[in-house]
Write the structure tokens for this entry.
Amino acid sequence: MKDMVTELPGLSRVRARFIEMLGPRQEQIAMHAIAAWDGKTAAEICDNLDAAKAILHQIAGSAGSLGMAELGDMAHQCENEIIAHLKSPEAGQATCPGDVITNVDQFLENCRKLL
Amino acid sequence: MRILAVDDDPIILELLGEFMAQLGKHDLTKADSALAAIDLLDAPDAPEFDCFLFDIQMPGMDGIELTRHIRATAHYVDTPIVMLTAMAEKRYVDSAFAAGATDFVNKPFEVAELRSRIGTIEEMLAKRHSRTSKIFAAKTVTDHANVIELYEPISIYDVDSVIEYIAMENYVAQLSRSALFGSSTFAFTIREIEDFHATLTPFEFYSMISDVAEVISDTLAGRQFLMSYAGNGTFVCVTESGWRPNTENLKDAVNLSLSRTELYNNQSELLEPRVCVGEAVRLIWKSGSTALDALATAHASAEAACIAFEKSKYDFWNVGQTA
């Protein structure tokens, strides 16, 4: 079980800080997802997806330790989907992968429920 | 222990702060980037750290580069470095250990696991401290010339893809945790290692082991592998996925290279170490302690090959004879 909440005292403060940071992080991910979706070039799309991936990576690394394993798993899944796209031949095309954006959108929806 | 944690995520640094506070016996310093950590270490009043905790994926210099940088400084050549990361892909695991990482903990952390790993590091440092007051690469062997036991794993520095034995065990454990299998393990043993150990000074012995490690590493160059000196003249190797090494050919290649390498003791007498190689053991489908057992099996196989080789020298005349 990836959950420190019941094992470490004082974690409620860290959890509150995580939630506090989740708002701006969620906005940044949304901004990059929209910019990727509207991107006109492959580089623009990939750069924005990569930026979103970096934030998802941070959420994936800590959410599970704070009693939010589901959110962490979703972030990890979105991160992996972006990595797979960036490694694929499709990354060279000026087309944003719709399924990736849909899943990121779902993730952002879950974030909103926590805020 | 005085510990330096480096992570670009402030939440992780806070989590580690809470964790260390609960343990109550470690002094944690935090840095939010690799460059901040380097500045901290380069400061004139920098404290001496006993252990490092590094994230891998950070903007700018990542945790693997930072590990390489730290290992290049004589001061921290063997200070434990634990990678705390969500990057579980094999290429990151391989790169981290090859750069000099001692252990690997997956994010998100579990308290019990983190406590156990920190405890293992503490034990390792305590053992090391009881053996030697300070370790500085080869200088250690010069200064502490009486501490090398035949069966003792020795840390070898500055040889490509050679890591500490404890790091090798942790590497295999990490492969088993992540189900990243397909690798093989096999070992080389230096023939008549007892004689070398008995007749050479500890520094000469260390130098010979180090030179043989370099020859093996050069022979395996071009392949993805990690290797460690496990003691008793034996080097254990773990190879990349999908490569089934032809161990007989490898043995011949290493021995040919050794025969072309001039190794001398302090009396300018020629040393002629030669190796035997054991069976390659696949790590597929092995997990947990079974994966670690595979290392022991490879080790034992190489030593058995040496014993068989020595025996064959004396039994040679009996071949083909019947009672």
